[in-house]
């Protein structure tokens, strides 16, 4: 039987590299990475709703230090704002800055197209039935660790 952990890790690394390369082509001035763009898209699709850092950690299954690093770099580029809610000083909530909204408005269609292309590359040469089975199995793996 195959050792699945290293195979999944290798696939994830290759997908992340591809996504980073494609995002660099879109964001030549800001040099955003795939995870940074994913966070920006998530905030953009929240339509102005304040999103907590904890919600991002859970949604993206990213550790607290990693998400803090991503947030720090996006704040430095004036793409997101952070705030501490009055009702819970332990939380940090995030929203897009005007610059972040503008950047997303200008590029959201290209980002979505790129994500579709990367997704197509992931499943190319895999039959429809196997794609469905892969989806079920990946969801089960995620559930096993949740």
From TrEMBL:
UniProt keywords (A-Z) are: DNA-binding, Transcription, Transcription regulation, Virulence
Instruction: Say if the entry is tagged with keyword Mitochondrion.
Output: no
Q: By what name is this protein known? A: HTH-type transcriptional regulator MgrA
> Annotated Gene Ontology MF terms?
DNA binding; DNA-binding transcription factor activity
Residues covered by the HTH marR-type domain:
1-143
SMART domains named among the record's database cross-references = HTH_MARR
The organism is Xylocopilactobacillus apicola
Q: Which PANTHER family match?
A: TRANSCRIPTIONAL REGULATOR, MARR, TRANSCRIPTIONAL REPRESSOR OF EMRAB OPERON
Instruction: Offer a single GO CC term for the protein.
Output: cytoplasm
Q: Where in the cell is it found?
A: Cytoplasm
Q: Name one Pfam family in it.
A: Staph_reg_Sar_Rot
Q: Does the keyword Cytoplasm apply?
A: no
The residues the entry assigns to the signal sequence are none
Q: Spell out the InterPro entries in the cross-references.
A: HTH_MarR-typ, Transc_reg_Sar_Rot_HTH, Tscrpt_reg_MarR-type_CS, WH-like_DNA-bd_sf, WH_DNA-bd_sf
**What family, per the record?**
Belongs to the SarZ family.
């Amino acid at each position: 039987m195959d050792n699945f952990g290293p195979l999944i890790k290798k696939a994830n690394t290759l997908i992340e590299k591809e996504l980073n390369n494609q995002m660099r082509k879109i964001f030549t001035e800001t040099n955003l990475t795939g995870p940074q763009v994913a966070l920006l898209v998530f905030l953009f699709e929240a339509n102005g709703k304040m999103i907590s850092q904890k919600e991002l950690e859970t949604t993206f299954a990213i550790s607290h230090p990693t998400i803090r690093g991503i947030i720090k770099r996006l704040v430095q580029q004036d793409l997101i704002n952070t705030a501490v809610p009055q009702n819970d000083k332990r939380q940090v909530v995030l929203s897009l800055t005007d610059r972040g909204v503008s950047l997303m408005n200008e590029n959201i269609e290209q980002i979505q197209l790129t994500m579709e292309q990367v997704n197509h590359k992931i499943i190319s040469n895999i039959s429809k039935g196997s794609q469905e089975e892969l989806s079920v199995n990946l969801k089960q793996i995620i559930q096993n660790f949740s």
